[in-house]
């Protein structure tokens, strides 16, 4: 039904699209960031944020602030926005919105499992979880000893259950296993999300396939870089790549055999959309790669707002807010630790 | 004209731009005195600085912190269910620093008390839960024990209550390490909130692979959640299982679900003993808790007495510091420089306040106050009273007047309620409105102090508008002769009578006129007659046009006064004159025809006259001729109107262009020169002429204006017909309710039906006629003022 969204889209999703575009207008701008970067103390940051949409969330915090409080409250705002939209949404938008949180769910599962493996307190771990990825029985994850139990006990109730089909083993959990599990889950999740968006069709499919492909490719590159020098075999590595995106399938073959970062770079530079990412980096440098990816992602997410009548805006808004919270966290950390010279290192301006 | 006493509301107050140089030590006091006066508008001199770079940011932060504490107190007070008393406090003014210390003390005290009571509450909850578990789980165990062989085995339980030991040490004696031998069937009993039971049970089942028995019973009492202080329903459970591994698993799951578990001894006597102990401890705790709560409430109440005052004080301080942040420090850092606007009449008051501030703060240097020139246009300020305020707000809702522009709210005071009443003419309804308005006004002082809902707030704000509206609608209702749509013979007898005594033909062939016209308003005999509607329609329609033309002329005349005031003869000659000629040669003429027709009782068709005035002006009017010389007059008027259009359109932009070229004498670099001289002049009188003259822009602007006026003359006149339409709708609606509801019901000789009919009539009158119709008539009157009246002269681009 491509091209007919304009006729029917607003019946169900028009209100929410208006809401989300309104939220987008509340994102911090470059001028805000410039002001924030000049702050001397966390109280200054609070004061500046009190004029933004975060104001009501921060106003009742007692004065010796911590970075965690700021981030927590800002995340709370995102969660409130999300919950509001989810309550208003009808199918298939509500499913789409739920899909957005699965990534956090995977992260949370991995966080808890790793934490219990290292015998950390469950409550402490729970506090660190992203509130968007919470589900009811998340605390029970600590009970499980291996993947099979993990699945049987807890995850079978969650939306993540289908993604587990590929990684159920009876092996005991260890760091490597967990990391592989995370990536397998992510792969399954991204593929599922991609299929779902394709099923929705229209502008949603078009825009989301672009955004998700980027996400998949970024994960592929990160997996490749992180697995250099580990005992992961090439075939295993290749198995972790999502089966879509620009690199699929030929890029994956090449990425799978990369032995150092410059080879990865060589692979990426064959793909015109990713050339710009590396153009700013010198050879052998990987620290700045994250930021470069983030910048590219933000650019793509902002573009999603240029088109109307599709669900991509919701995804884009959530991602942009998360990026904004990451920025705020970085700025507040820099301010709190008196490292203001590094403040621009990792801040990605959104507008 | 010029020797009349000045009327405050006609034009906004004259403003002057003043500069204040305030010594640092008296700055705070000066600004707070000025704030109480409310007659000076500061300009933000630090607009380029972000909020935390300003001078008084620390004080602002402190105020924000204090208001946070106050919010905390308020929250606590409302949570505790105390009413904050509104009674006036005779406590002397406290200094801000003192207040800050006080607030911090109170906060610490409160937090400590909260923590204490939370601890108490927690142990109380635990005991209460334990008690419930004992009661419920005991009954499970007993019932299962009677017909189970494993009674003895169950006796030796492993009690897992390590976390419970600290809080209830007297129970420790009950806890012996279980001798887990024999069959290995053990149990864990505990309590969990009701909403989680199902998932908890499922999780246990899954984790144990079904090798367990789960019993549950709802708790009789609700338990207060200490964090959210809400009552939570809980369920007692007992899980039977076997094996050491299973136990640790179950414990982990319990922990994950936030269930708390308590040991229950098998022995009934022991159970009783523990229950007794727990109960006695519960009683003790309850007493302590109550005392704690009483103490806390007392503390809160003592805070509550001052809370309102403190809040207003902190807000005021914050406002003062925010204003201070808008001032500039001069070079020596000894005084602050502020710039702002104040009305000229307020100078004396301002200076007095400043002197008072100097005196009160024992400053050696006075505050320097001097008037400056300013480049931008001053803000608009009207002195209003409680009567004119509502009308001023009606106008301001459209746009705040440009500085010193003639203010439409002067005329709105009368025309607005009058136009409303034309649409709402019924003196019965008018009396209802009048009563409402009088109630609001009588209780003015009382209502003014309390907080009202948004709807009541609106009514209260517009109480004087409502009063005038109701008075005018009584007046118009008398003219229309409608009292809940029923006509009355108030002003003498009807001019008509029946043809014969039976009066059978009254509704068919009509009545005979036998005496002078009815003294005031519409003759009651029109009511119900065959020609009632045509008569009223013709009356109301023509009246609407007359009112409309009169009001639009008024608007154009006001534009003349505006132009004269600002000394712009250009606007008078090339805008006002052609506009008034255009409007009056077409619609003024129509009004004239209407009046002549009314006076002479002629049968002429005015539509025909107006239409053929355009189509064939030279043709003979025939039977439609109303007066001698009508045809030549029409031709002259038509010519005038046709001349007026280009008159409006062309001369003004060309003259403006000529003036511009004359001013700069053909220099194309004029702008650059002025901006250079600006830099040399001292910043006090930084007047820069922004004369970027663009002829095509001016011309297009003028063209839009002229076209708007010409088309607007037609459409606005038509727009005034809404007066007729709404008044017709109102009278028809009230007739329907009266005849089809009240009279119909009255026709039955049945008390119930009559009462129902009366209730329905009252309901319809109150909600549909009095509320909905009032609103719609209000909106239409609003539109007539904003669009049809104000677009003739009102710029409304001030601030």
UniProtKB/TrEMBL annotation, chain A:
GO cellular component: proton-transporting V-type ATPase, V0 domain; vacuolar membrane
InterPro entries in alphabetical order: ATPase_V0-cplx_csu/dsu, ATPase_V0-cplx_dsu
Major localization class: membrane
Membrane topology: Peripheral membrane protein
Subcellular location: Vacuole membrane
Keywords: Hydrogen ion transport, Ion transport, Transport
Pfam (any one): vATP-synt_AC39
Superkingdom, taxonomy of origin: Eukaryota
Single GO MF descriptor: proton-transporting ATPase activity, rotational mechanism
Family membership noted in the UniProt record: Belongs to the V-ATPase V0D/AC39 subunit family.
Known partners and oligomeric status: V-ATPase is a heteromultimeric enzyme composed of a peripheral catalytic V1 complex (components A to H) attached to an integral membrane V0 proton pore complex (components: a, c, c'', d and e). V-ATPase is a heteromultimeric enzyme made up of two complexes: the ATP-hydrolytic V1 complex and the proton translocation V0 complex.
Protein purpose: Subunit of the V0 complex of vacuolar(H+)-ATPase (V-ATPase), a multisubunit enzyme composed of a peripheral complex (V1) that hydrolyzes ATP and a membrane integral complex (V0) that translocates protons. V-ATPase is responsible for acidifying and maintaining the pH of intracellular compartments and in some cell types, is targeted to the plasma membrane, where it is responsible for acidifying the extracellular environment.
The protein's name: V-type proton ATPase subunit
Organismal lineage: Eukaryota, Viridiplantae, Streptophyta, Embryophyta, Tracheophyta
From TrEMBL, chain B:
UniProt keyword Signal present: no
One GO-annotated biological process of the protein: vacuolar acidification
Intracellular or extracellular location(s): Membrane
UniProt-listed Pfam families: V_ATPase_I (PF01496)
Keywords: Coiled coil, Hydrogen ion transport, Ion transport, Membrane, Transmembrane, Transmembrane helix, Transport
InterPro entries hit by this protein: V-ATPase_116kDa_su, V-type_ATPase_116kDa_su_euka
Molecular function terms from GO: ATPase binding; proton-transporting ATPase activity, rotational mechanism
Transmembrane segments: 416-441, 462-480, 543-563, 575-596, 633-650, 751-772
UniProt keyword Cell membrane, yes or no: no
Membrane topology: Multi-pass membrane protein
GO CC terms, sorted: proton-transporting V-type ATPase, V0 domain; vacuolar proton-transporting V-type ATPase complex
Main subcellular location: membrane
Coiled-coil blocks: 89-123
Role played: Essential component of the vacuolar proton pump (V-ATPase), a multimeric enzyme that catalyzes the translocation of protons across the membranes. Required for assembly and activity of the V-ATPase.
Family label: Belongs to the V-ATPase 116 kDa subunit family.
Protein name per its UniProtKB record: V-type proton ATPase subunit a
